Amino acid sequence: MKTGILNRYYADLPESYLFSTIARKIDSYRQSHPGADIIRLGIGDVTRPLAPAVIAAMHRATEEMADVAGFRGYGPEQGYEFLREAVARGEFAPRGVDLAADEIFISDGSKCDVANFQELFDRKCRVAIPDPVYPVYLDSNIMAGRKNIVFMPAHAGNGFQPEIPKHSVDLIYLCSPNNPTGTVLTRETLTAFVDYALRHGALILFDAAYAAYIQDDSLVHSIYEIPGARACAVEFRSFSKTAGFTGVRCAVTVVPHELAELRRMWLRRQTTKFNGVNYIVQRAAEAVYSPEGREQIRATIAGYMANAAAIRRGLTEGGWTVCGGEHAPYIWWELPEQETSFAFFDRLLETCEVVGTPGSGFGSCGEGYFRLTAFGEPDSTRRALERIRTRLK
Amino acid sequence: MKTGILNRYYADLPESYLFSTIARKIDSYRQSHPGADIIRLGIGDVTRPLAPAVIAAMHRATEEMADVAGFRGYGPEQGYEFLREAVARGEFAPRGVDLAADEIFISDGSKCDVANFQELFDRKCRVAIPDPVYPVYLDSNIMAGRKNIVFMPAHAGNGFQPEIPKHSVDLIYLCSPNNPTGTVLTRETLTAFVDYALRHGALILFDAAYAAYIQDDSLVHSIYEIPGARACAVEFRSFSKTAGFTGVRCAVTVVPHELAELRRMWLRRQTTKFNGVNYIVQRAAEAVYSPEGREQIRATIAGYMANAAAIRRGLTEGGWTVCGGEHAPYIWWELPEQETSFAFFDRLLETCEVVGTPGSGFGSCGEGYFRLTAFGEPDSTRRALERIRTRLK
């Protein structure tokens, strides 16, 4: 095959996807240290089993699929009405955000939606991306050949609130609670971004995959809590971290009626290039909003947040500076020494057999930081912190 | 939001996805004819429940997800090794095709993979698409802004074997058994295409979603049965029609080692923009290859093929000309009158309350034809044919 016909923009990407690189490093350590007791506080993957209400819904829906009367083939590409309505009622209404079912699109993951949504835009449009942030926003735009990308630095100096671009941009990615810093964007920050977007005719892509971890009701959970946002923002939600669906796959994208042309295009994109989410999974996601489902999920998140508190406490008492971990499953650890975050990754693995994520993998402002996650088991999280405090200094 | 930043190529698409248009027509008929007994031989969606072996695997895997020891979060984006190996052994080895597990990528659907794969190529590359064919190949290329598209006509005059392009092209889509004509590409046709691709440095995108319906072992099931194909072809397989997974979502894409750069790029694309298939679904797909699974699936397909035979017989005895339906679930019905296939759709719905798919929805060579599918229940298929024979003439 002629290689000249290939998408040349792939060559502009970093060599491999961050988390694949890390997985390879761990594999290689395991091979050279058989029997190593590695504790993974790295990749943001949940560890607690699915909620009993979710499991029960799955078994029930599986039985439906075993019977000709209950069997379901292709569903609507944008998701079954029962789930879209459950999301509107269960996810948004409690925040005072009123959404119609046809503003809600169900998919198999926020990573897919966040990565695919840029397809609806011209290759020449100007993109603003927080730094540091989840690498998919940048990588998917590089793959599409976008060159006009500005970064919005977030650091201790601005309370990890990304700076509004000085010049005019067309697309603005925001992530709150932020992956990796664990910071929630303030109402003031979000209001300023919405005002900016309305003034410049820009679109905000608001990734709220971790909204369920916000512990303070006065903080903003959905971009639509900000006046004017319906005319300038889409929002991404996920069941992955909310309900432990990382291996189940279900997510939500909201495109409001006010963005009529964009809504039509996303529907066209999804009906043409996607075939809907597994029926059983949609019933499972619906069960997340049942009274028992809610209660069970709340308890699981409380467990993760207890880990987050333990990590914060352990590092702080060890003399380190951290942020995050109060309304997010991520703790952003300021590295004390003149050491790259990738070098620190290796040292932490070798000294403590603890895995985290190097901050520089999330952007240049992430250098000098390290991400730990609260998704471990309480006991292994506690042991990891013990090793860090006793072996690292 | 400024509309000038939108992807302008969407405006080049037909107004809506073919099957969405049809669904709207049926809805509107239902509303104006309450109690109508509509028989759907239109969209290619299965109707038989999942195989007992698949259901049992789903229940088992669901239980694993209920327990901390068995719980699985993110899996490999390209699919679990157990499924990739089962596919190599169960799907390809019996045809004498030897694939390594890392040449196999698991996804949530062939529609997605077939639509996404073009992202790996330059916008300027030249694309050849059969006419008539499944509309996703064309639509996904239009969305990406490709203008250099040639069609390969397939009609009664060439035995529905698409004509090899006269000039040099870079990407060639093939679909065998074909949707909508139900025709299997011959060994001679496929050998000629592989030779062409090798000579021109082109890539063949071989869609074999209906391979399980081929009844004659001497016909080609996989493009890799053709010498040289590993250096010039990717292949798409699906559990949708093989095992009734249209509402479950699982598919396979093969990128051979010989296409090393392309394989790396597809892995990069999937790790960046996709997050793997549901673990329970992968266990369900594995069960398709168990001895009981195979037997149950064979029986279901035999049932659909009995419908296909009944449709062929009914139409032929009624004096109509058909092709397909012998190694595919699709019957391609030559319309006798000077009537567009969309007008015929309306007439068939109004006269017989039977739904099919207008041939012109699959390309200009589809005009004058109509697609019926064998996925109905035997009784309703029989009743549909009775209505056609008694009411249509």
How is the secondary structure organized here?
The structure is a homodimer of 393-residue chains.
Chain A: H1 18-32, E1 39-40, H2 52-65, H3 81-92, E2 104-107, H4 110-116, E3 127-131, H5 136-143, E4 149-153, E5 171-175, H6 187-200, E6 203-207, E7 233-238, H7 239-243, E8 251-254, H8 260-273, H9 279-287, H10 291-317, E9 321-324, E10 330-334, H11 341-352, E11 354-355, E12 357-358, E13 369-373, H12 378-391
Parallel strand pairs in A: 1-11, 3-4, 3-5, 5-6, 6-7
Antiparallel strand pairs in A: 2-8, 7-8, 9-10, 10-13, 12-13
Helix pairs in contact in A: 2-9, 3-9, 4-5, 10-12
Oligomer: homodimer
Fraction of residues in H or I helices of chain A: 25-40%
Mean pLDDT of chain A: 96
Give a quick account of the main beta sheet of chain A: strands, pairing sense, barrel closure.
Answer: 7 strands, mixed
How many strands in all of chain A? 13
Content-based structural category of chain A: alpha/beta
Question: What's the quick description here?
Answer:
The structure is a homodimer of 393-residue chains. With 393 residues, chain A is of the alpha/beta class.
Q: Can you give a write-up of this model?
A:
The structure is a homodimer of 393-residue chains. Chain A has helices at 18-32, 52-65, 81-92, 110-116, 136-143, 187-200, 239-243, 260-273, 279-287, 291-317, 341-352, 378-391; strands at 39-40, 104-107, 127-131, 149-153, 171-175, 203-207, 233-238, 251-254, 321-324, 330-334, 354-355, 357-358, 369-373. The first copy, chain A, has 393 residues and is α/β, with parallel strands linked by helices. In chain A, the strands form 3 sheets. A 7-stranded mixed β-sheet of chain A has the order 2-8-7-6-5-3-4, sandwiched between helices. Chain A has a 4-stranded antiparallel β-sheet with strand order 9-10-13-12. In chain A, helix 5 (136-143) links the parallel strand 3 (127-131) and strand 4 (149-153). Chain A starts with 17 loop residues before the first helix and ends with a helix. The mean pLDDT of chain A is 96. Chains A and B meet through helix 2, helix 4, helix 5, helix 8 and helix 9 of A and helix 2, helix 4, helix 5, helix 8 and helix 9 of B.
